[in-house]
Amino acid sequence: MPKNKTHSGAKKRFRVTGSGKIMRQRARHVHKFQERSSSDARRLVNDVVVAPADTKAVKRLLGK
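== Large ribosomal subunit protein bL35 ==
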């Protein structure tokens, strides 16, 4: 039986915490910060937990 492969796109976008939660970056976090206020930019820094409805699908893509 061959090994399962992790989805390449998913491993770049999600991470699993020690307790098993799936974390993701907020949208609009990557570039064009000059168009945002400092408070908006700071708010986007923190990772958030993936919605419960998406957790099962993301875990399957990550091979967890």
